[in-house]
Amino acid sequence: MSKSLFERLGGSEGITAIANDLVDNHLTNKNIAVRFAGTNVSALKNAAATFFISSTGGPDVYKGKDLLAAHKGMNISGTEFMAVLDDALHAMKKNNVGQREQEEVLYFLYSTRGQIVLV
Prior knowledge:
The radius of gyration is 14 Å and the shape is globular. The longest helix is centred in the first third of the chain and has 18 residues, at 11-28. The chain has one domain (5-115): Globins (Globin-like). The chain has helices spanning 5-8, 11-28, 41-55, 67-71, 78-94, 99-111. The protein has 6 helices and no strands.
């Protein structure tokens, strides 16, 4: 039996490191940093880690808002969405995530576009 994406990303520890780096990348990305002004960074990192752990087959249960509810009315552009994907790719590369896993994560993230962009 093949390993789940959760396991291949390093389990909770690996995914938490990726999520933390992802949020850090957002905070310094000139295209989207303004979106995170005044955000509780610790809470955002925790929510991101839990979301990714849950979404990749891990044991955590994400109890936050669904993506549509969380992003409704924010008017997020396609350019901003792509900046998030770039940040995710950089976070995965920093954490030595394999090419196959990078592609799976990016595919999943891209599949959420309709729940985030211009909703």
